[in-house]
Amino acid sequence: MLKFTPLLLALIYGLVAWRFSTWRLKRELDEKSSELADPRLHALTRQMAQALDLPRIRVNLYEIPAINGLAAPDGRIFLTRGFYNAYRQGQVTAEELASVIAHELGHVALGHSRRRMIDFSGQNALRMGLTMVIGRFIPFVGPMLVNAAMSLLTAKLSRKDEYEADAYAAALLSKAGIGVGPQISLFTKLEALSGARGAQSTAWLHSHPATAERIAAIRALDKGWNARD
Fold first, then answer.
1. Which of 2, 9, 95, 220 fits a 20 to 30 Å CA distance from 209?
2. Whole-model pTM above 0.70?
3. What is the C-alpha separation between 164 and 209, in angstroms, rounded?
4. What is the DSSP letter of 57?
5. pLDDT on residue 201
6. How far apart are CA 121 and CA 179, in angstroms?
């Protein structure tokens, strides 16, 4: 029984960390957000809601300066103030913001948002457990190897989710009559908008797929759909 004590403690820690992270995120979103009321965006979300046979799609404005979209574990969709300001300043179009909303809807519909929180706690527990065990046999270097391996696993799972959400968004935008053009054009702007112009590292270490690969995947989907029409 004593052999498994570190792993049990790690699992308990992971569960507690997950519950605390979920509670903290919900509280922050509640305190720093309100429903987004924009006529042009409302018209576009109404088109997407009709395509999904939903009465409406509520989008919330998250009051932080970063440029991002967010799907909360409870299913709510958020655009950040930074993203909305970029739209108001003419840096992105309403249709491009609609593609962000469609992407985040994909995360919700495919269960990514809730699963990411569970994965986060499970990976933390596994990281801690492996570090305790391997660290006994390979001091110093062992924990570093565990952290590197878990980071690679996390990045791989995240990239898979992003591809799936991209495909969902492309299908929804096409069905809603908006098309994939705004989705593709936004990808070409995101790096500059977010200021992510630092040194390029190996693509498979990133939590998101390379922009060119995402665009190619969307174009391939669109081409396939058009070929069947």
1. 95
2. yes
3. 11
4. -
5. 37
6. 37
Residue ranges of E strands in 36-138: 59-62, 69-71, 77-80
Distances (CA, A) of 71 to 76, 142, 220: 6, 35, 26
Task: State both tokens at 137.
Answer: 């046999």
- What CA–CA distances, in Å, run from 116 to 80, 121, 152, 173? 20, 9, 15, 24
Give the span between the Cα atoms of 151 and 107, in whole angstroms.
21
Please give the pLDDT value at position 42: 96
At 119, is the pLDDT very low, low, confident or very high (cuts 50, 70, 90)? low
* Residue closest to 53 by CA, chosen among 226, 175, 165: 175
CA distance 21 to 57: 26
Q: 140 φ, ψ to 5°?
A: 70, -60
- Would you say 134 and 188 are in contact if contact means Cβ atoms under 8 Å apart? no
